[in-house]
Amino acid sequence: MVLVSTKMGAKILSRVAKITPFNAYYTEDDPWSEARRKGLHIPDNIARKYEICELDLLIQLPNSEVNYPPKPGDEVLKIDLESHYEDIFGISRDEPGYVWFGSLFGYKNAPIPLDIEKVPMHMAVFGTTGSGKSFSTGVLIEKFMCISAGENRAVSFPMIIIDANGDYLEYDKYFKQAYQDIDSKIRPVGWVKRFVFPHIAYQNSELRGEPVIGVDLDRLSVKEIAETIVMYHKGSLDGAELQISGIVTLLDYLRENEGYDSLHEFFVDDDLYDELIGKLRNFDTKRIAAATKPAIERAFAKFREIESNYKILSAKKESELTQDEFIDDITENGGIAIIDFSEEGATGVDIQVKQLVMTYLANLLFNKFSKYKIENRTRYLIFLIEEAQNFIPDKSYPISSSLAKNKLSLIATQGRKFGLSLCIVTQRPSFIDKIVLSMCNTFFIHRISPDDVSYVRTATGGLPSSLETRLTRLTQGHMIVTGQMNKLPFPLMISIPKADRIVPHPMGTTDVISTLKKLREGFDYI
User: Fold this and answer.
1) Whether 267 contacts 217, CB under 8 Å
2) Distance of CA 59 to the CA centre of its chain
3) Domains of the chain with CATH codes
4) How far is CA 392 from CA 148, 348, 366, 440, 455, in A?
5) How many Å apart are CA 430 and CA 396, to the nearest integer?
6) Which residue range or ranges hold the Helicase HerA central domain (predicted)?
7) In whole angstroms, what is the distance from residue 383 CA to residue 368 CA?
8) Which of 2, 21, 260, 523 has its CA 20 to 30 A from that of 79?
9) Using CA atoms, how far apart are residues 156 and 333, in angstroms rounded to an integer?
10) Mind listing the pLDDT tens digit for each residue in 468-526?
11) Nearest-CA neighbor of 505 among 176, 188, 137?
12) Which residues have CB under 8 Å from 338's CB, separation 6+?
């Protein structure tokens, strides 16, 4: 950053966009080219040399639009950011309602303010593997753990985190220690809990006793249950209209005419399941075609694998995720629920099962927050989704269909009205559903793939060319921040210092050599 001081008295904050060195001895068709070709010595120290700096004019201080460009001869000065913070951002460093994030590129201690009031308008974090995406997302999570609320108080933002790769599991371990050992900067958090799949909790002694993931099918509509069953069986809903319609017809009949209060139990209890199959086989063929019944029965049998393999249906009785008070607890107490979809907490779990859990959570959140709105009970929550392309895929992504997509799209379009915010985290933004991403209003952009540049340009509403050209070569830990949470009306390039993260991040570390050494212990080398 530099400051242009004009003769009219204006002070214009500018960003160096490009630096081009000039040397009179090294220009096209200069008179020294023949001498260089012959290898003669050229006295470089007497050459006319200078550098041309192109500037992006950002704002006129204090924090207003640039009305007139500077003129030749106006001074360009190095700016002391510390003394100009309030002029630039319009707020002091202790202003409540903001978190201070990262550091402006080129400066060691120059964090930028993020407006917490804009969180409900949804966020997106982009970055390829190795770009620092997960590390900086962790720093962002920590900032949301301690938000200045004025009067010497701090609050935490409630969060549900879908952890696809185990990048945030350290928070669960960290908050298990004594309260006095927790860093005061993140102490306002009410609680942190890690939820794992039941079959893993039963098999892994280290995870025994951890809260488990459970699903209550009765919280889904009959159509959602039918689509879930077919999706799990076929992997797609294409061409399955008759099966879906038949399942809806059967389940509606059982609930309305046979007096079954719970459809969930049909897929948990063996006797009730046999009864369900009997009802299907004997059902009026005018309402469910005879040719469709075997396909439905196969879908039912396949769906029961969810229970036999993963136990998430029978976990309904013990899982906090199926309790009415769960969302109340997390929103009232500033809790953080980490849904462990990593290989450690979800070993061998199919993507369709994870999509079922996502469908359930999205449905639970949308319905609960809709109820809060109707009852005039304002609540807020961030639903952060890692590897979001698996749950909100665009048609170009191999997993082009996802049950969770419809409900998450509904949260994207309507959630901001009642305090439910999405935070989409992905390596490939072009694989995210365009409608959902168009609803995001703040973007944290790390290094991305060249194939994603045009898509990011469209999603963000455009970036200055000086920043857009850097998108594919940003170094690890550097990012561009743009959108509503950014206090300034132009994108900012920042870095995330390693010291900014309180809870250590595994950073994809491995232990190859020591593991191989241990496995080959006792081997005689020749």
Assistant:
1) yes
2) 30
3) 2-89 (no CATH), 98-215+312-513 (3.40.50.300), 217-309 (no CATH)
4) 33, 21, 16, 13, 16
5) 8
6) 101-363
7) 14
8) 21
9) 9
10) 999 999 999 999 999 999 999 999 999 999 999 999 887 556 678 888 877 877 665 55
11) 137
12) 161, 163, 168, 169, 171, 172, 192, 193, 194, 195
Question: Which residue carries 């509403």 as its tokens?
Answer: 461
- The C-alpha atoms of residue 322 and residue 316 are separated, in whole angstroms, by 6
User: What are all long-range contacts of 352-355, with beta carbons under 8 Å and residues at least 24 apart?
Assistant: 352/231, 352/232, 352/235, 353/232, 353/306, 353/310, 353/312, 354/390, 354/391, 355/231, 355/390, 355/391, 355/402, 355/403, 355/404
Give exposure, 487-526, as e/b (b: 16+ Cβ within 10 Å).
Answer: bbeebbbbbbeeebbbbebeeeeeeeeeeeeeeeeeeeee
85: confidence class by pLDDT, cuts 50, 70, 90: confident
Q: Can you tell me the distance from the alpha carbon of 469 to that of 239, in angstroms, rounded to the nearest whole number?
A: 44
Give 153's contacts (C-beta < 8 A, 6+ positions apart). Answer: none
DSSP code string of 94-112: T-TTEEEESEETT-SS--E
Alpha carbon distance 149, 519 (integer Å): 53
- Gyration radius of the chain over CA positions: 29
| Residues sharing a CB contact under 8 Å with residue 290, sequence separation 6 or more, in sequence order | none
pLDDT tens, residue by residue, 269-306: 999 999 999 999 999 999 999 999 999 999 999 999 99
Residue 444, CA distances (Å) to 303, 426, 481, 484, 488 in order? 39, 11, 5, 11, 14
Give dist(CA 394, CA 8) in Å, integer: 52
Look up residue 433 and give its two tokens: 């559903």
Long-range contacts of 301-309 (CB under 8 A, 24+ apart): 302/232, 302/233, 303/228, 303/229, 303/232, 303/233, 303/267, 304/267, 304/273, 306/232, 306/267, 306/353, 306/356, 307/267, 307/268, 309/199
- 8 Å CB contact between 312 and 198: yes
E strands present in 345-476:
381-385, 420-426, 442-445
Distance CA(342)–CA(436), nearest Å, equals 24
Sequence-separated (6 or more) residues with CB below 8 Å from residue 204 = none
For the segment 129-144, the average pLDDT, to the nearest whole number, is 95
Query: Do the Cβ atoms of 377 and 234 come closer than 8 Å?
Result: no
Reported in sequence order, the residue ranges of 296-370 that DSSP labels E, i.e. its strands, are 336-340
Tokens found for residue 39: 């290898």
